[in-house]
Amino acid sequence: MEIRIGITNTGRELSFETNESSDVVKSSVVTALDSSASHVTFTDVKGNSYIVPTANLAFVELGTEESRRVGFVA
Question: Which keywords does this chain's UniProt record carry (predicted)?
Fold first, then answer.
């Protein structure tokens, strides 16, 4: 699933793919915001970790969990 994160006062977005389900990602973001945590952590498909400060979150966009089709469709 692809995740796009907008950070305030930054012209670029953080975009990566993860193996986690959208429910897991949603709950981690909501839990971090509700508990006033200073950051939320994500891990992509390659094992890289991203630490994003919750005070600067502009948006979190979750893509679909479908795999991309490769090839031509007849």
Answer: ATP-binding, Nucleotide-binding
